[in-house]
Protein: Rrf2 family transcriptional regulator
Organism: Formosa maritima
Amino acid sequence: MFSKACEYGIKASIFIALNSYENKRVSLKAIAKEINSPEAFTAKILQDLARHNIINSTKGAHGGFEIDKYAISSIKLSQIVNAIDGDSIYKGCGLGLHTCDEEHPCPVHDKFKAVRDELKHMLESTNLEELALDIKSGVAFLKT
Amino acid sequence: MFSKACEYGIKASIFIALNSYENKRVSLKAIAKEINSPEAFTAKILQDLARHNIINSTKGAHGGFEIDKYAISSIKLSQIVNAIDGDSIYKGCGLGLHTCDEEHPCPVHDKFKAVRDELKHMLESTNLEELALDIKSGVAFLKT
DNA sequence: TAGAAATAGGATAAAACTATCCGAATAATT
DNA sequence: AATTATTCGGATAGTTTTATCCTATTTCTA
């Protein structure tokens, strides 16, 4: 459903959020270890998220990544997905038609619409805070 | 959402079904033209669908592809998707965790489950016949 | 039976995605 | 000021997906 990059991006954001609540910056190394992802590849994704102002990065010794703790609850999953994978997951036609709308629909347009709308709603209504809290409480996990 | 191969596979199946109702076999060339796909690549996908017994292929002059007209209404979208993309779309974890279930869920497990279940239900409850009829009646389209 | 019209299938190429490497830049610490 | 820890960013490599090419095989038709 999502690209590998997007999966890493979401997991990394959750881990960064978790630490930001405790005012701790986390290093690339720590993130990659925690979410079980390749370091250099993860670095690219974090740079991307930083460019999109979803996370903040600080260079140099004692540097790393963090998220404004007061912004965590307002960051939606959709923003992360959008930053990394773009909006094709919402907007694209299920069968790849160049133009697919009510006027000129592909054969699965209506049926797909329901699924995509549910996905869209889910991504837009889920924020980083709730995901981070599930990790903190041990209800959910970031690896294995 | 689906691979390009899967998109072509679905569109090709619809077009073959449409012609099979009129007892017409269609050639690779005609299919690729109709669904606007690369010929040789489409050939591989059709071979795959034939191996999975979803369509029938006939070699030689006057050969081509067809579907048993009495089977069209019982062929589900899920069978086509499954033949080409496998079942990862149903089974895989949204965040790529190796094991992700009620016992050990990823942070988006529950939220994702709803979307995936809806997708699964949609694919399993949609058959080739209804899709083909929408094309026949001019309500839906296979290209542009 | 020869020739033409198709699909089958192996080999290869191109593009996109995933992953790695390394030097440059930056910031804290000593 | 030098050293160290760290992110940034360009270059490169590996893998998967998408696409193409060519020959073999099959089947119909004349």
Summary: Residues 3-5, 38-41, 44, 58-63 of chain B lie near DNA strand D (CB under 10 Å from a C1'). The longest strand of chain B covers residues 56-58. The first helix of chain B runs from residue 4 to 20.
